[in-house]
Design the sequence.
């Protein structure tokens, strides 16, 4: 009886992808010029196993390519070939060819209709194994010029995830073992219930002491069995969760070939390096990250990396590099997308912001690099000079921000070094199904916050909350933090049945929340709990509610809304704008120009609002060194500076400014939380004209001090 090979082919596809992954990882390192001596043996064994399986199943085209690949790896292993980048690129081409054949087998459900092996590819591999490749550069396969969009089209098609996943046998063994323990624990609990029912007939023959002993023994045993089952349930969840965890390489690997094809279509040479591909994350995250990762890579290739002549003129190698790095970061995942290109074009960003009416031409030059970084995420924003299939349409980065921050409960930051490159840093929870949730109560309503956004919880008196720049704020750890009321921002007082007056508390409870834009202190009634909880998605008819990301269920079966902190903070900022904007006069042409230097974004913004509300023109700097550079480029009429700052502190900045001829008589005011007398004396010694402790901060006092020093 003939054997049906189709079921074996499908099993082979799954195993082949694993072996191919081993070869790819080494080839990426080789094409990037890294030392791969330790990986060559594993690559050879993977190729050898792959070839043997293909031959057994009569998959001749895969076997032919893999045979030539094995020959190269054998020569590398025996030190008969010198590893180089061209060889790595050629091996990657071979693995891409095998991947395409495996995809074709998958689409045909195991039917072997593969065309003959690529003769040209096999010949190049054979010549390379004989050392006849020389210095001949290997070019990636070029996508036809009339359809460059095909080069990176993952955003539309998404990652093709199989309906099943490979699970290591030891994971299944762990799951079955724990299930056995849970069943045994359940049997013990049933015995406890039975023993309790057996006490009934014996009550008439028991005195009080005997009854007390029976009850104590029963409660003690029940508590022990319950604790055991509690631990087993959490262990069961942990093991079950790991089964749906997949290596992040499943997200990264498909884009590597597409990056090379896109680069080739743009006449650029690009290597895509993958570090930490073995880190495992929830499959849901892998599915959802496909689109934002595509946009980031397309942006890096099209905007960040320049062509070979420009790179060589800048003293760089002709080949650009995009590095995808993943690592565990506390309770989450840190993902970095980094290129070694030209960096963000800040002049072009500022010009585009003015052209689109996002920023006034009068103040655009005062935008910090951090503020420019935020502009690129604005919908429709693009600095491309021409609209093509790949760029100039202003879509992409706004989708990245929405997916990462709003949909996946993560954070997104961008850092750029002119002439050196740009890095996008993404922080994500390991899983979307289970998250650590901080629960609080506001006027008998329960809410939750993802703990990753919570900095700390503090108690303070009502006197510690001040009215600064027409908004309540608290001074905490050397920075001003705006205070928002949970009842006000969530409009609880507007709800039916929420008009019951609450007693006036002597101390207030504040939850300090933070995202990449700054911090806020949210005033709440009670703090309830913090624990890992299962997140339940909103039903379809409620998914338009941007403020709520999901629901959790408490121990007493109450549903708790989990709030989206970025949306919450955005609502609070908009809520506070009208009052300040109504009182803010227009800046006069002859107004004083003040430089504010502070590493706290909240403090900078609050001080800026105070000064602008009184007609001052303001420029911001995030540390002493940045402040000194701006002071040398622009003549300011006064300087406000903090003391504790990275790179250069306020004392050093003041001393450096006094050494500048045009700042020897300019008012410098130190505003800091350091209120000791020796700090005040040091401030005077380095040349400060005034020293204001943040604990004593009053906006009227600041304005009066400035007027006195300037007039």
Sequence:
């Amino acid at each position: 009886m003939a054997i049906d090979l189709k079921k074996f082919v499908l099993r082979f596809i799954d195993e082949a992808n694993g072996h191919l992954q081993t070869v790819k990882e080494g080839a990426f390192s080789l094409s990037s010029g890294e030392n791969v001596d330790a990986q060559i043996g594993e690559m050879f064994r993977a190729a050898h196993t792959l070839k043997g399986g293909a031959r057994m199943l009569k998959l001749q085209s895969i076997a032919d390519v893999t045979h030539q690949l094995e020959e190269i790896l054998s020569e590398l292993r025996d030190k008969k070939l010198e590893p180089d980048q061209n060889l790595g690129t050629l091996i990657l081409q071979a693995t891409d060819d095998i991947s395409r054949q495996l995809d074709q087998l998958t689409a045909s459900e195991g039917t072997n209709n593969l065309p003959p092996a690529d003769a040209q590819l096999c010949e190049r591999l054979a010549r390379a194994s004989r050392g006849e490749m020389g210095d001949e550069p290997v070019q990636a396969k070029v996508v036809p010029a009339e359809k460059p969009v095909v080069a990176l089209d993952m955003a539309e098609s998404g990652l093709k995830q199989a309906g099943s996943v490979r699970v290591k046998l030891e994971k299944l063994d762990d799951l079955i073992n724990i299930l056995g323990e849970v069943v045994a624990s359940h049997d013990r609990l049933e015995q406890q219930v039975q023993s309790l029912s057996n006490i009934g007939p014996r009550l008439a023959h028991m005195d009080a002491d005997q009854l007390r002993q029976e009850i104590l023994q029963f409660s003690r045993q029940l508590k022990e069995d319950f604790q055991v089952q509690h631990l087993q349930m959490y262990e069961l969840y942990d093991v079950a969760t790991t089964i749906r965890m997949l290596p992040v390489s499943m997200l990264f690997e498909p884009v590597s070939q597409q990056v090379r094809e896109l680069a080739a279509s743009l006449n650029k040479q690009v290597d895509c390096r993958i570090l930490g591909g073995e880190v495992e994350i929830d499959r849901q995250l892998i599915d959802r990250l496909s689109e934002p990762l595509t946009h980031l890579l397309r942006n890096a290739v099209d905007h960040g990396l320049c062509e070979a002549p420009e790179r060589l003129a800048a003293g760089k190698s002709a080949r650009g590099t995009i590095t995808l790095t993943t690592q565990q970061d506390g309770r989450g995942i840190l993902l970095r997308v980094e290129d070694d290109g030209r960096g963000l074009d800040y002049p072009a960003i500022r010009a585009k912001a003015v052209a689109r009416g996002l920023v006034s031409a009068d103040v655009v030059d005062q935008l910090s690099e951090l503020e420019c970084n935020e502009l690129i995420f604005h919908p429709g924003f693009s600095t491309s000079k021409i609209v093509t299939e790949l760029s100039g349409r202003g879509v992409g980065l706004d989708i990245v921000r929405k997916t990462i921050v709003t949909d996946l409960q993560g954070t997104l930051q961008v850092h750029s070094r002119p002439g050196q490159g740009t890095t996008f840093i993404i922080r994500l929870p390991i899983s979307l199904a289970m998250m650590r949730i901080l629960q609080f109560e506001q006027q008998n309503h329960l809410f939750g916050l993802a703990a990753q956004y919570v900095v700390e919880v503090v108690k303070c008196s009502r006197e510690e909350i001040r009215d600064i720049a027409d908004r309540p704020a608290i001074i905490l750890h050397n920075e001003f933090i705006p205070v928002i009321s949970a009842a006000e921002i969530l409009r609880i007082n507007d709800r039916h049945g929420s008009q019951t007056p609450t007693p006036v508390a002597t101390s207030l409870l504040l939850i300090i929340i933070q995202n990449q834009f700054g911090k806020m202190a949210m005033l709440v009634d009670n703090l309830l709990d913090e624990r890992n909880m299962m997140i339940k998605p909103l039903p379809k008819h409620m998914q338009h509610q941007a403020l709520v990301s999901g629901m959790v269920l408490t121990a007493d079966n109450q549903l708790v809304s989990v709030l989206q902190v970025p949306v919450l903070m955005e609502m609070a900022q908009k809520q506070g704008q009208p009052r300040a904007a109504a009182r803010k006069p227009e800046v006069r042409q002859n107004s004083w120009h003040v430089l504010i230097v502070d590493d706290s974004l909240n403090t900078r913004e609050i001080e800026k609002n105070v000064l602008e509300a009184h007609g001052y023109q303001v420029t911001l700097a995030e540390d002493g060194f940045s402040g000194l550079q701006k002071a040398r480029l622009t003549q300011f009429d006064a300087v406000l500076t903090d003391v504790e700052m990275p790179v250069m502190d306020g004392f050093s900045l003041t001393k450096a400014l006094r050494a500048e001829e045009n700042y020897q008589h300019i008012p410098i005011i130190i505003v800091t939380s350091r209120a000791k007398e020796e700090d005040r004396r040091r401030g005077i010694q380095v040349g400060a004209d005034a020293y204001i402790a943040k604990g004593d901060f009053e906006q009227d006092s600041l304005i009066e001090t400035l007027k006195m020093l300037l007039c």
